[in-house]
Each structure stands twice: as C-alpha cells, then as structure tokens.
Automatic annotation (TrEMBL), chain A:
This is F-box protein. Residues 19-55 form the F-box domain. Pfam families: F-box. The lineage of its organism: Eukaryota, Viridiplantae, Streptophyta, Embryophyta, Tracheophyta. InterPro entries: F-box-like_dom_sf, F-box_dom, SCF_F-box_component.
From TrEMBL, chain B:
Residues 11-68 form the SKP1 component POZ domain. It comes from Nicotiana attenuata (Coyote tobacco). Residues 107-152 form the SKP1 component dimerisation domain. The keyword DNA repair does not apply. Residues 139-163 are annotated as: Disordered. The keyword Flavoprotein does not apply. This is SKP1-like protein. Part of a SCF (SKP1-cullin-F-box) protein ligase complex. SUPFAM superfamilies: POZ domain, Skp1 dimerisation domain-like. Belongs to the SKP1 family. Involved in ubiquitination and subsequent proteasomal degradation of target proteins. Together with CUL1, RBX1 and a F-box protein, it forms a SCF E3 ubiquitin ligase complex. The functional specificity of this complex depends on the type of F-box protein. In the SCF complex, it serves as an adapter that links the F-box protein to CUL1. The gene is ASK11_4. Pathway: Protein modification; protein ubiquitination. It comes from the Eukaryota. Pfam families: Skp1, Skp1_POZ.
Length: 174, 163
C-alpha cells in the first residue's frame, strides 16, 4: 500500500490563543450576566458577543436548556421589574432568587405595563402612549416609532428570522 | 512506516507536535471528522499533527478509546470518565478544547467548551484575559463605561486565579 503523508500544518491553530470558533463555543455556554462582563475582555470578544449570529445561537441554546426565567412587575405603574428562574417557582425553592431590574427609562409620572413578550424581548408601554422594546438580559432599550393613533396599543406577536418584530394592535382585539 | 494492516484492522499513525508517534486502529480516529476525511479520501496512513502537543494527543486518544467502548451498560462509568477527563489545569483544558475543535470531534467539543465556561464564569476580567492570553484593547474610560452600564455583571467576589 502506498504511504501518503500530508502536512496540515498550514491551517493549524496556535495553541496560545484559541481560535474564533472555540471562543464562540465557550461563550455560548455562559449565562447572559457573565457575557455582559466578558464583553469588556477585548474588542474581539465584544464583537463576538454582540453579533447577531451569536445572539441567535445563544437564544437557541438557552431555550434548549430550558433555563427559563419569569419576569414580572411588582405593581402596575412602577418602572420596576423582577426576574427569577421559573424552576424556583415550580419547585417552590425556599430561598428567593429574584433579581430586581430597573427599567432604563424613567419618568416621574407614568404607568408602566408589560404589553407582551417574545424571545426574551418585552414590549413595555409607558403611560399608554410610548412603546419600548426592552431586552432585560442585556439591559438594552429601543423606543418604537409612535403608532398612527395615539390610543392604540401594540404588543409583539412574533419575531421573524431576521429579528424583525411583528406588532399586533391590542386595542383592535376585542 | 505504519501503513500495514493486521487482519481486517487498519492501523494508523498520528504524530504529535514533538514528533512522538501514536499507533492506533484506524476505526478509532473516524470519530474525528478531520481525520476521517483524510483517511477516507486521501488514504493516508500517517498523519502529522504538529500543532497538537503529545500530552494533549494522549488525552484525546484516551477519550476516543473510552468513547468507542461506550455501551448502554457502562454509561455511568463513561460519565465519570468524562468528568475526570476535564479535571485538569485550565491551560491544559484549553489546549484539549482547541485540538478537539481542530480535529472536529463534535460531541466532545461542546462538552469541553461547557467545562471551560464553568471554570471561567466566576473569574475576573483580568483573570480571563490572562487565561486566554489577551491584551485589553479598550481604554480605561471605555472599560469603566461597561461597568457603569451593567454594574450587576461585575458584582460579587470574582476569582483572579488562572487555574
């Protein structure tokens, strides 16, 4: 039999700093809170964690792992939300593991309400007028353009593959 | 050169970074997508892997052997083996993970990455930089901006060790 020896040195990894794929896979296994910290390791790490591919892959994996969290408002109207692992409620763990989340946009007067959610994003209305999309995991907030009629309320229905959010006009539901 | 066949079993030689040779059954390396393609398409019988330390290669071959012996009855034993497999110093675990990624041993890659993630999740940013040999390219102002934006991510006792 012929002996063939191939050299594959050209594309081999430098063991001193792991390649992109490995960093990507390792970061994928970390919870969001840790990722927020890891963003400041370097620009390269920050760009991986902020990339749409990473965000999508992370969402897919955490849904698979069923690491679900419940988010709630302590009382209607206040810009204060809490989150806790769903498991701690389902299995009635004695210690409270809920975390307070501050809504990043506060006005002194205003009624804050969760209108709906999908893929970990929340649609929050303030004073039944302004609409925000909020990603509480990464504390990112986007104000939505005002609806056509001022009394309309919208809630997110679903997210498309390209991460567009389809909003449904809730006032037309009944 | 080890291009011989003994009975039906084909033998293959892997050469580690320090030229140490490992002779093993070809069927074992088929768990690696990279080596499988080389064996099947190019009919190689000796594969140099200069970027992989022999110490790392020994560990990986050990895994391939154990994994090949996996049956429903020794599942528990295999799980214990896996736990021990990643119970090495972090630097060595990273070497293994990089090699596993290079060799494309899919099931093992996710397991190793999870093990690395578990080991770094309580580390400080500075420790993580040391472990991954990264120089920070953020200005101190930019860095404090991160801390200001998400102070809760930086809370708690963070571990500065690199092991």
């Amino acid at each position: 039999m012929d002996t063939v020896t191939t050299s594959i040195a050209s594309s081999s990894p430098d063991s001193r700093s792991p390649p992109y794929d490995v960093i990507f896979e390792i970061l994928l296994q970390l919870p969001v809170m840790i990722l927020l910290m890891m963003k400041c390791v370097s620009r390269f790490w920050n760009s991986i964690i902020s990339s749409p591919q990473f965000i999508k892959a992370h969402l897919k994996l955490s849904t698979k792992k069923q690491d679900l969290r419940l988010l709630f408002n302590d009382s209607l109207g206040r810009p204060q939300f809490y989150t806790c692992p769903l498991s701690s409620i389902l299995y009635q763990e004695s210690h409270q593991r809920h975390v307070k989340l501050d809504f990043p946009c506060k006005s002194s007067s205003g009624e804050y309400k969760i209108e709906g959610s999908c893929n970990g994003l929340l649609c929050i209305s303030v004073s039944r007028r302004d609409l925000f999309l909020w990603n509480p995991s990464i504390r990112e907030l986007k104000k939505l353009p005002p609806p056509l009629a001022s009394d309309n309320r919208f809630r997110p229905l679903c997210m498309h593959q390209n991460n567009d959010v389809l909003l449904q006009n809730a006032s037309k539901l009944s | 050169m080890a291009s011989s066949t003994t009975g039906e079993k084909k033998i293959l030689t892997l050469k580690g970074g320090d030229n140490e040779e490992f002779i093993l059954e070809e069927s074992l390396v088929l768990q690696s997508e990279l080596l499988k393609n080389m064996v099947k398409e190019e009919r190689v019988s000796s594969i140099p892997l200069p970027s992989i330390k022999s110490k790392t290669l020994v560990k990986i071959i050990e895994y391939l052997k154990k994994h090949a012996e996996l049956t429903p009855s020794n599942k528990e034993e295999f799980k214990n083996f896996e736990k021990e497999f990643v119970n090495v110093v972090l630097e060595e675990l990273l070497d293994i993970t990089v090699a596993v990624n290079y060799l494309k041993i899919n099931g093992l890659l996710e397991f190793c990455c999870q093990a690395v993630a578990d080991r770094i999740k309580d580390k400080s940013v500075e420790a993580v930089r040391k472990i991954f040999r990264i120089e920070s390219d953020f200005t101190p102002e930019e860095e404090s901006e991160f801390r200001k934006e998400t102070p809760e991510a930086f809370e708690g006792d963070l571990d500065d060790t690199t092991n």
